[in-house]
Amino acid sequence: MKENTIYLDNSATTKPYEEVMQAFMAVNEQYYANPSSIHTMGVEANELLMRAREQVANILHTEAKNVLFTSGGTESNNTAIFGLAHGNTHKGNHILTTEIEHPSVLESVKQLEKEGFEIEYLQVDNMGVVSLDELRQKVRKDTILVSMMHVNNEMGAIQPIFEAAKIIHEASRAAFHVDAVQSFGKLPLTFNEDEGPDCITISGHKIHGFKGSGILAFRKKMQWQPYALGGGQEFGLRSGTVAVPQAVALSKAARIAIETMSERAKKYRNWQDEICTELKKYGDAVTILSTPQGAPHILSFSIRDLKGEIMINAFQKRGVIVSTSSACSSKQTKTSHVVEALNIDEHFKKGVIRISFGAHVTDEDIAQFKQVLHEVLMELKGEYVL
Ligand SMILES: Cc1ncc(COP(=O)(O)O)c(C=O)c1O
């Protein structure tokens, strides 16, 4: 990466915080023993692990025994969905999710469908938000699981998860899983003893921690079948030698994320507003997919009849890193399922660009981005956009 590159792809991944890297190195150097071992070194590693777990539990308002460390958002989503579905077949076999989930949820429920579970998808409106009325109609006595993302990774729509939890819990005995990969550290989210989501997924690399680290946390003890079988680590719920350095690093990243959340969110929202004002100058050559009601760190927009890859290259040539609607779908040529669900005009479907802010972005980066945006649009669309 060139020294003065402007990185605006923080929803794909973030640069780890310096303190997080230091914590990771220190634990690897001194506390590398297996935390399940009974010798002193193992006990010390386990103490560190327990401290990291306590810290995450305090942040989320749950008990330490309800926090599992995993290898990331994908594993946490898979574990929650398979574990809660297979562990609750005595209550029913109906599962609800939304049409704009991350592939780690959509592919999991597709697999469950092959196993005989009944899956239904909630639609979203053109702002990317589900309808609580549709949820009310679809949730049933035999619904055993509802999985809904908090913030959409492609355009930032926020789902009304607290209102949804109320509806789900009043009408069924279903577990409510929330993929909070894009919301943790950007929006307030904690468990509540009596209400709200039952289970949430967090990914380390989206909050300036490491790739390959994640959390699956519960509000209370849940009925479920372990997904990864083996040595019975993580209270028997997620086997595999626990990666203590990752867990410690992640707990540190989570603490910094929470401590800096309101200040960052304010900054991100201002940048989002500034760039939207700029985009609106290009009239109907541009459509903005993100809404002011969405998450502050994501801004998705599209340029009429332009391909996303062409835009990305034009930005990259000028030292600015942006992405198409999501990192997962950016190598695929078909339109993303989220863009399809939003029902936008055909002319804008191929040109969706996502910019996403992180803790290392500065005001100067945003000023430079706006300048580059103008240059790119003039190069690719010429006078037409003005
Ligand atoms: C909403 C959402 N869920 C899940 C994931 C998967 O997380 P991970 O990359 O840690 O497996 C991502 C990653 O992009 C995401 O944005």
TrEMBL record:
Its EC number is 2.8.1.7. It is an enzyme of class 2 (transferase). SUPFAM superfamilies: PLP-dependent transferases. It comes from the Bacteria. Its cofactor is pyridoxal 5'-phosphate. Keywords: Pyridoxal phosphate, Transferase. Residues 6-369 form the Aminotransferase class V domain. GO terms for molecular function: cysteine desulfurase activity. The keyword Transferase applies. This is Cysteine desulfurase. It comes from Lysinibacillus parviboronicapiens. The lineage of its organism: Bacteria, Bacillati, Bacillota, Bacilli, Bacillales.
